Amino acid sequence: MSEFLYDKAIMALKAQRYDEAQASYEQALQVGYSVEAWTGLGICKLFQIAEGQTMEEVLFCFEKARKVEGADNREIDLKLLQNGQVVILQCAAYAIASINNAIEAEKKAATAALISIASIAVGGLSNSIGTKIFAGAAAATAAGVAVGQFGKMTSSKEIAKFATDLLEEIYNNVYGFLLEKDKMEEAVELKDTTDRLCSEILDALDPNRKKARESQELIEAQKVAQKEEMANQTDESVVSLANSFQELGVFQMISFLEVTSDEVLQLIKNDNFLFCIKNALNCDHYFCEKGVVKTGLMFGKQEIYYSYSELSNLEKSWGGALRDKPTGYKIDINKASVDWQSPIIDFINSKRHELSPASKNMPGQELAIEEVPIVEEAVSELAVKTPLSDKYLIPENIRYYGGLIQKRQSEVGFFKKDRYKKIFIKDIIKEYDVKFMDWGNLAKELKEFESANSQSLADKYSDISVE
């Protein structure tokens, strides 16, 4: 195809003089078949898709281009994909502009003059939804996409249906063409673009749809984050409560996100935060190792810390709340249909037991040493425990590696600790199938192992490091 005819056709296409552009390509084809002429004619027809041209005609031209001797089929397929994307994007921009105008006219219950949507640029739409725009000739000719029916329809619903049907038609044909030519990656890319744009068009028709979708996406993202946090939990009582809440359908009320309230952080500075039950009748409950902080308007005070050792009389009230009368602590998540109280009682009792272990002598129970005969050998024998690293057959180099991870975790700030926790679980816990109850003790054992043999192990395993 001569350079003059090609430039002439491109200029005519940008200016939406389709007859002139098509005539230039057909004139060139009469002289001889070329890839430029056939793909150019196909693009010309593609740009008039909203005017009534068909995708069958478009694909016919591109198939003919592939059959030209010496044709670069990869380049031809890419040109179809790029221009298909541009037309889909531009038609979506036209559709949204038309829908917004039609909705405004419908609200006023009057016939309003249609805005000039021919000037709606594909770039403006892409900025609003984050769709990738291809550089080069395809994007440069976007202004040549015909407005077609978008400039004639006045019903917002009619526009939305026409637009989504049109985008689906373009996508289905180009997608099928690319799959047939083994261009799976490009086909999937086109599908993602079309799905996003159809969703954007329907959002323009019904703004509440977008809010509902974004709300659902946020809920799903929170669920994923919760599951990831649960996978890293090493506290058996926390896992038990979370599993119970999940079975009861109230798991979404638990949050493992870090504490941001300065007041709460001040109250728990000598404690370790575990999780929070959010918005329990407008109160948040921050559960820690030794106690719980309840926030909200309570007797004129915003935050109160309750030690678990104080919460010894937890009872379910007639209204469904869980209350400890002596301290005044109360929690109610307003879910009368499920027994959410029992998991919380079990959790708090478990923590109370940890704070007052059975092995600790109670007042009045002290025993004089001379009253109890001691056989030193027996005591020594009982005191000897098999190291967990031997139990799980963890070799010395991995013990050293695990110890380094624990050491590094203790050195970094709060926000980076989670990274090393995940590494430890992945490379040590899961790799050696460590039982849940042994996680914490193994971590302590490996840290002590590294500390006691630091220099010799560093020399012996100089290739092992933790960044």
End-to-end separation in angstroms reads: 60 Å
**Largest sheet composition:** 5 strands, antiparallel
Which structural class should the secondary elements be placed in?
alpha+beta
Specify the overall morphology: elongated
| Unreliable stretches | 111-142, 359-384
Helix segment tally? 19
Mean pLDDT: 78
Number of strands: 8
Helix content: 55-70%
Listing every helix as H and every strand as E from the N terminus to the C terminus, the arrangement reads HHHHHHHHHHHEHEEEEEEEHHHHHHH
Q: State which percent range the strand residues make up.
A: 5-15%
In which order are the strands of the major sheet placed? 1-2-3-4-5
Rg measurement, Å: 35 Å
Tally of separate domains? 3
What can you tell me about this protein's structure?
The protein has 467 residues and is α+β, with helices and mostly antiparallel strands. It has three domains: 3-205, no CATH class; 228-355, Roll (PH-domain like), CATH 2.30.29; 384-460, no CATH class. It contains 19 helices and eight strands. It has helices spanning 3-14, 18-31, 35-46, 55-66, 73-108, 122-129, 137-140, 156-180, 184-205, 207-231, 236-248, 262-267, 341-355, 376-383, 388-391, 396-411, 414-429, 439-452, 454-460; strands spanning 254-255, 273-277, 285-288, 291-298, 301-307, 314-316, 322-324, 329-331. The strands form two sheets. A five-stranded antiparallel β-sheet has the order 1-2-3-4-5. Strands 6-7-8 form a three-stranded antiparallel β-sheet, with no helix packed on it. The longest helix has 36 residues, at 73-108. It starts with a helix and ends in a 7-residue tail after the last helix. The model is unreliable at 111-142 and 359-384 (pLDDT under 50).
